[in-house]
Specification:
Blueprint lengths: L2 E3 L6 E3 L38 H18 L3 H12 L14 H16 L4 H8 L1
Antiparallel strand pairs: 1-2
Helix pairs in contact: 1-2
């Protein structure tokens, strides 16, 4: 951190921290936000684009392919589909090699499980 002079009392303080002498902490100036005069619309949040059955079927096929590669039971792919989309297609497609998007999502779920309080390893550590 760099040292700066307090604008209120002149004492030296570390940048980003309050002054040790008087407690003053300068605030950043407000930033201008450019906007257009139009109707407001909600962005982000729970509004998701509807996903086609084709896309969901492709995901299921890739999850089945990943389960096959890793030696998991086919039910693993079914449960991952339920986790991702809320349900699973009734038709079971042929397994295909998983793409980057599916692999990244599965990795994100593994990381979330690793840090989850439901993970038995984390329950043991909390009890100790």
């Amino acid at each position: 951190m760099r040292l700066t002079e307090c604008s209120q009392c002149g004492a030296l303080r570390k940048g980003g921290l309050p002054c040790p002498a008087c407690g003053f902490l300068p605030k950043r100036p407000a930033e201008y936000v450019c906007f257009s005069d139009e109707d407001l619309v909600r962005i982000g949040g729970s509004q998701q684009r509807p996903v086609s059955m084709q896309t969901r079927s492709e995901w299921y096929a890739q999850l089945l392919g990943l389960a096959q590669e890793r030696g998991y039971k086919p039910g693993w792919a079914y449960h991952k589909m339920r986790e991702k989309w809320g349900d699973c297609p009734s038709m079971k497609p042929a397994p295909v090699r998983p793409g980057h998007e599916v692999l990244a999502w599965v990795r994100s779920r593994a990381i979330a499980w690793h840090h989850s309080p439901q993970n038995p390893r984390n329950q043991q550590a909390a009890a100790s």
